[in-house]
Design brief:
The structure holds three protein chains of three kinds. By secondary structure, chain A is of the alpha/beta class. Chain A is built from ten helices and nine strands. In chain A, strands 7-6-5-8-9 form a five-stranded parallel beta sheet. A four-stranded parallel beta sheet of chain A has the order 2-1-3-4, sandwiched between helices. Chain A is globular and about 55 Å long. Chain C starts with a strand and ends with a strand. Chain C has four helices and eight strands. Chain C has one domain: Rossmann fold (3-Layer(aba) Sandwich), CATH 3.40.50.2020. Classes of the chains: A alpha/beta, B alpha/beta, C alpha/beta. The interface between A and C is medium-sized, with 21 and 22 residues.
Chain lengths: ~300, ~425, ~170
């Protein structure tokens, strides 16, 4: 029985994750054809409900849905910082009336996609909710890492930066952990909470641990209501990939990943983008294939009334 | 009314329940003991049941005036009766707040129409805004004993100090909702692994503990009497104990059933039925608070009955208002969770949820003994209660016990010359 | 249940298919595309025979899970496998290969999939078994064996590589 919704990585087991990653491969193969579309979701409606602005994730989902021959509608939702319950409820009622099959939701508040999923028969995909989860990002991250390391168990990845406010940190650490990768967090003491993963508050310590890949997170200025560290300059010097650190990374053949968009000069120096083991472009490319796999793998519950 | 409660066990605050019959005549308890049925009395079979004084809840929110969609004073008291509670103290965070004699009068008048006595507390500061002292003398005259800005702490320590220095002269006491406004974040849940997992900024227990420390020191320095409301933190509880026992401070504390029973883990997948302020903390806190209750660190149990509409509680976790109802469920849940398991007995419940709250409010303690006015309930420990919306009398049903079945049932409530409830 | 074809009969059927395709090709190169699952193994075996007989042949494989017409009725969507057609489809003369042709819907899906790779000059169909009961107007040019079956019968094809044995069984309902 397929799932109705795709809300987080925590609720998936290892077998499901591997199945999804495997399912993404044939979708990636399609990119080499002249006709990149398949009719699998022909006649289905995919609604984009992005309460938080985003160009990359939105367009990635749009391309994925259109390549499955689905009809894509971008729902104009209020982008104000105050989107109270009333308007979300109204939106859900409208969606029900429109008989959407799939709804892709991005929201500022943790838990909101789950709340929407409970109130609609459509398949809900979480495109990022608050600081809680970003499961499709996690999938494309795992897929990308698996392309360079087909055997993931035992590999080491350090996730660097604003762990506290990052849904990417949560979802990606969870998926890698489930796949047997050793995960560690590193960043300013005020931004790395205690979790079950190894914790480094010092870049050098993290490097001495011997990671196979460094995953730099975006500094989430918009989620920090008060300063968590003194300045961007200090952040870059202490926790960013400086030109000097890039040399060490390059010498050791360590891969570099980043969910985007990059704050140049804060998390990474520009030279990182020219580094041949920088996986950022592959991450973007793999986003479409993994999102196609997610859409293809879900089944809306259009026969029954929502609970 | 001539009533004979036969074959039950009478519970008191000092001993385990004792087998005794209770004869009630015209609103007064005529006799308690193993006695013959008096002539003309209506016999109520209480075999296997507990007969005890009515409960008293010193911390409830009835939302009137201003938010009657959630609860009214009348509905709130009916929920109380349904739960075996025969007296309440309302909190003043209504709209307008209970911060002037006029509003006090208004809510007390509404209270008069109810079937159980209704008391109210009043604000320390005007509109609970934390800037100006409320008209304390006028409030005293209107009958107020407890001053609290519950819902919030008083942010300005200097103002609170002055209010305490002034207010203690009127023989009133202060009650504190302890929460540092700068550490509390979005007031959604406890800071810890659960808040991390759910991706929501949590409130550290520190926010409560720092404020408790502050308020207790201020009260002790000024000589005011202080009652700490809804304690959720084990360390915070230790602060009360230390100042009271080591320094002789006039401080008391209250704990709610939910802080004894539930932890932040219970929030699960963003279930707002486990969202309240102060938030649920850890299982270790549950255990420590329970021990504190048994050791007498807490003077009273109080529910912090906080009704909200279904619509409000179905919002995203961060947006949903804080609080759960408690009046319908408290006594049965305390029985189900703690008396059945042998954690504590009826004596503790009678002491902490009936006698001490009344003493704190300077009322006559309700007792099931000869000569006392009738204020009692009959509880069946073997019957089960299912808390459906239809069963509960509160206008709102935001409780984690919704549709759950617990062991125990409030069977009868008798106050004065009237049977308020009989199942 | 009855065994319609034993390993020897199956081998003979594969031979017949190879012969038919070879003679129809008239010396030209042969482009086989096997339809997963099992059509690909049949195509592999036919390909081997063709190579044995000196033909110039190329082999591709097509997964049609993304081209079905029945997703509404499935409680979960099929597991995808890879497709691989290494030679250009534009202008090619493709021989689609499947194990069984029944209603013809699979072939329709295969044609849709194939045409998303390019525009072949011609498409022929080769099947190991034709069991009748068409619901789509599609006919194979090359058939290994014709089987008489009832509409409700189940025809199970087992192949060495994927199933561990060679057999065709008919199960009457």
């Amino acid at each position: 029985m397929a799932r109705k919704d795709f809300l987080d990585i925590v609720s998936l087991d290892r077998a499901e994750i591997i199945h999804l990653l495997d399912q993404a491969e044939p979708f990636k193969d399609l990119f080499t054809r002249s006709v990149k579309k398949v009719p699998a979701l022909k006649g289905k409606t995919v609604l984009m409900l992005f309460y938080e602005p985003s160009t990359r994730t939105l367009s990635s989902f749009e391309v994925a849905a259109k390549r499955l021959s689905a009809d894509v509608t971008i729902f104009d939702v209020p982008h104000s910082s105050v989107t109270k319950g009333e308007s979300v409820r109204d939106t859900i009622d409208t969606l029900q009336a429109m008989r959407a099959d799939y709804i892709v939701v991005r929201h500022r508040l943790s838990g909101q996609p789950a709340a929407i999923a409970r109130q609609t028969n459509a398949s809900v995909i979480n495109a990022g909710d608050g600081a809680h989860a970003h499961p499709t990002q996690a999938l494309l991250d795992a897929f990308t890492l698996r392309e360079v390391y087909p055997e993931l168990p035992g590999r080491k990845v350090v996730i660097m930066g604003d762990i506290l406010h990052s849904r990417v940190a949560r979802s990606t650490s969870t998926i890698l952990d489930k796949l047997g990768v050793e995960v560690a967090f590193c960043g300013p003491g005020s931004l790395v909470p205690k979790t079950r993963f190894k914790r480094f508050t010092n870049y050098e310590e993290a490097m001495n641990w011997g990671p196979d890949a460094v995953y730099q997170l975006r500094v989430q200025k918009e989620r920090q209501d008060a300063p968590f560290y003194p300045s961007d300059r200090e952040y870059h010097a202490v926790y960013g990939i400086t030109e000097e650190r890039l040399k060490e990374i390059s010498d050791k053949g360590i891969y570099v990943m980043h969910p985007g968009p990059i704050n140049r000069g804060v998390e990474l120096c520009d030279a990182v983008l020219d580094y041949d083991r920088c996986l950022i472009p592959q991450q973007v490319e793999n986003g479409i294939a993994t999102r196609m796999a997610v859409l293809f793998g879900l089944k809306p519950d259009l026969k029954n009334e929502p609970s | 009314m001539n009533l004979f409660l036969q074959g039950g066990e009478v519970a008191t605050e000092n001993d385990a329940p004792q087998r005794a019959d209770v004869w009630i005549l015209d609103g007064v308890i005529k006799n308690v003991g193993v006695i013959d049925v008096p002539e003309g009395a209506r016999v109520i079979d209480c075999a296997g049941k507990i007969v005890m004084p009515g409960m008293f809840d010193a911390h409830v929110h009835f939302r009137e005036p201003g938010q009657e969609k959630k609860e009214t004073i009348l509905d709130g008291t009916e929920a109380a009766i349904n739960g075996g509670i025969t007296g309440v103290v309302m909190m003043p965070n209504t709209s307008p707040s209970v911060d002037s004699p006029t509003v006090v009068k208004r809510v007390l008048e509404q209270g008069e129409k109810c079937r159980i006595p209704v008391l109210t507390s009043a604000c320390i500061t005007v509109n609970r805004a934390g800037h100006e002292m409320a008209p304390i003398a006028g409030l005293k005259e209107a009958g107020i004993l407890m001053l609290t800005d519950d819902g919030d702490a008083v942010p300005n320590a200097a103002l609170l100090k002055r209010a305490m220095e002034y207010g203690k002269e009127f023989d009133m006491f202060f009650a504190s909702h302890c929460e540092d406004p700068q550490l509390c974040g979005p007031r959604a849940l406890n800071e810890g692994p659960v808040s991390y997992r759910l991706g929501i900024q949590g409130t550290p227990a520190l926010a409560e503990e720092i404020c408790m420390d502050r308020d207790i020191r201020l009260a002790h320095a000024t000589g005011a009497m202080l009652h700490i409301q809804h304690v959720s933190s084990a360390i915070g509880m230790e602060t009360i104990r230390w100042w009271r026992d080591e320094r002789g401070a006039k401080v008391s504390g209250e704990v709610s059933p939910h802080h004894l029973m539930f932890a932040d883990e219970d929030i699960g997948d963003y279930d707002t039925h486990y969202k309240m302020n102060p938030p649920l903390r850890t299982r270790e806190d549950n255990a420590a608070l329970l021990q504190g209750l048994k050791d007498g660190v807490f003077r009273i149990i109080a529910t912090d009955h906080a009704p909200h509409t279904d619509f409000e509680k179905s919002q995203a976790f961060v947006d949903a208002p804080n609080g759960i109802t408690g009046l319908d469920t408290a006594l049965v849940s305390l029985h189900d969770r703690f008396v059945v398991t042998g954690e504590f007995g009826w004596d503790l419940i009678v002491k902490r949820y009936s006698a001490e709250p009344r003493r704190m409010m300077r009322l006559e303690v309700a007792e099931v003994s000869e000569g006392k006015p009738v204020d009692l309930i009959v509880f069946d420990p073997d019957k089960e209660t299912t808390f459906t919306k239809e069963f509960m009398r509160s206008r709102s049903s935001n409780t984690p016990f919704l549709n759950r079945t617990l062991k125990g049932s409030v069977e009868m409530v008798v106050l004065g010359d009237e049977i308020l409830l009989e199942r | 249940m009855s065994t319609a074809l034993d390993p020897a009969a199956m081998s003979a059927a594969i031979d017949r298919l190879a012969d038919q395709i070879l003679s129809a090709a008239g010396g030209q190169a042969i482009d086989l595309v096997g339809i997963r699952s099992r059509g690909d193994e049949v195509a592999e075996r036919v390909f081997a025979k063709l190579v044995e007989r000196g033909a110039q042949a190329r082999l591709g494989v097509l997964d049609i899970s993304l081209y079905r017409d029945d997703y509404e009725h499935l409680s979960s969507n099929p597991t995808l496998q890879s497709s691989s057609i290494d030679f250009p489809v534009d202008g090619a003369h493709i021989v689609l290969v499947d194990d069984v042709i029944f209603t013809g819907r699979t072939i329709r899906a295969a044609l849709d999939a194939l045409f998303d790779y390019g525009r072949p000059s011609k498409v022929d169909l080769a099947v190991l078994i034709d069991r009748g009961h068409r619901e789509i107007p599609v006919e194979p040019r090359f058939v290994g064996e014709h089987l008489k079956t009832d509409r409700m019968d189940r025809v199970d094809v087992s192949l060495e590589k994927i199933d561990g044995k060679d057999a065709v069984e008919i199960i009457t309902q």
